[in-house]
Amino acid sequence: MQQALFLAQQAFGQKEVPVGAVLLKDGKIVAQSHNLCKRQNNPLAHAEFLVIEKALQTLKASDLQECDLYVTLEPCAFCAGAIALVRLKRVFFGAYDPKGGGVDHNAQVFRHSFHKPFVMGGICEKESQSLLQSFFMTKR
Description:
alpha/beta
């Protein structure tokens, strides 16, 4: 999670919403990214989605059943859907997102999904939340 936080800090510095994600297989980093929505002018360039795409290419695989995702914010419904489609084994996230989250809040994608990864939220929650709050304070 520390690497995901580092990536989120990089996103903050690039005026992106500070969300960082790291995907691991057998404890080794396969892909890492932060949000790139502004830079790519693409609202789909969420950190989770980007690492999933990179991992599929790197591993030359059609699923990620043996992989774990660490992300600094509760995945939205879009990202949770992608996580289910590639069958990630486990998802660990930092801050909860009552407004936009799609795991523990709102759509609760995994509750209704054919694939239900192990999920644990609240890891480094305060650090993740503080970074997000600081970012949005600069926007107001």
